Structure of Probable cysteine desulfurase:
Amino acid sequence: ENSKFAKALKAEFPIFHAYPDLIYTDNGATTQKPARVLVAEQDFYTRSCANVHRAIYTLGEEATSRYEEARKTIAEFIGAKPEECIFTRGTTEAINLLAHSFGETLSAGDEIILTEMEHHANIVPWQQLASRRGIKLRYIPIYDDGILNLDILPQLLNRRTKLIAVTMISNVLGTRNHVEHIIAQAHSAGVPVLLDAAQAIPVEPINVKELDADFVAFSGHKMYGPFGIGLLYGTRKWLEALPPFMGGGDMISEVGLEGFTPNEVPYKFEAGTPPIAQAVGMAEAARWLSSIGHQAAGNYESELGQLLIDEISLIPGLRILGAQPGFPLGPRAGIVSVTLEGVHAHDLAAYLNRHKITVRAGHHCAHPLAQRLGVVSSARFSFGAYNTREEVFTIAEILQKAHKELL
Ligand code: PMP
C-alpha cells in the first residue's frame, strides 16, 4: 500500500522520468525536487524577477511580496512568526550566523555543549568561535547503539554553559535525539538550545513553539526544495538581543560615516540580496511536504530503514552503524550506514552505482562520530518519500551479491 503511494509520488519528480531505473538513496545529502518546486522557482524568474525591498515599481513590489509570502509560508510550516525566520544559504550558514552573532555575547571561559554525533556544520563554527574567544566546548557522549547518553547532561551543564547545540537527527546513524528532554533540562538551567534540524525537517513536522527551541537551523535542499536556501529560526527575544552577523545593504535602517543603526528583525540578519527565487521554491516544497502527509512520509521512510536493516543484518561481515544485534533500535529516521568487512566503502558505493543505487560513502562530514564508532568510512542509505519497498529488496539483494563478489 505504502509503496503504491511512493510510486505515485515518484511521478511528480522529473528526475525519475529522466532515469526510471535510478534507485536514489542519497536523500540525506539532498532530496530530489518535485516539478511543483521547479515550476515555482521558474515562475518567479519568468513573471516576478526583480530585487526585493528597495523597489517602488510594481515588479519590484511583486518580487518583495512573493519573497515575504515565502517567509510567511515557512514560518507557518514551523509554527513561528515571520520576523523570527531568517533566510540563509542553508544549515551551515545558519549555524555560522549564530556562532558569530551569539558568539559576540560570550567571553573567555564560557562553555557550549555539543554532542559526539554532530555534523561538521555544527562543530567547526563552534571550534572557530572557541579559538577566537577562548570558549570551552563540551560533548554529550553516545552509547555504542548510537543513542546520546543524556544521563551525563546534568554534569556537563554548569554556570558557564551558554548554549547547547544539538542535532535532532544524526545524518549518519538516523538516531532521533530526545531533544525535548535536552531543551527542558537546558531551560531549567537558563541555557538556550540550537537544534540542527537539517535531517529532521524532511521527516517530521516541526513546531518550534511546542518544542520550545530557541534556535533552529535547516536547509531547503534536504526538504525537496532548491539549493542555496535555508533558514535560521530564532525567538524574537533572542534575535532582537543579538548583534548582526554580515554587514551590507538591507540589514541597516540608517548609515552614517561613523556608524550604522541595524534594521529590525529579521532584516537585521539578511545583508545584501537574498536568495529570492530559492525562498519561493522552498516555500513550495514546504507546501508540498504538508500536502503529502509530512509525518506519514517520515514514518514510511523509517519503516524502509527498518526493513533494510532486517533484510541485511545477517549478511556476514556487514555492520550497521549504531545498531547492536539483539538490542531494539531507538527512534530512527530512514538512514542506514553500513560497513562491509574487507571492502572499502568507496568500492561498495561504486559497486552499488553499477546497479544504479546511489549511496554516499565516506565519513559523512562527521569525523568525530566515525572515530567514536571506530570506522574510517561507511556507505549510507538514506530514504526519501519516493523510495519503495521493492527498492529496499533490490538493495538487500545487491548487498548480498557485493559480499560475495567484492571480497
Ligand atoms: N547538519 C546535518 C545534520 C546535515 O545532515 C547537514 C547536511 N549533510 C548539514 C548540517 C549541513 O547542511 P548544508 O550543507 O545544507 O548547509
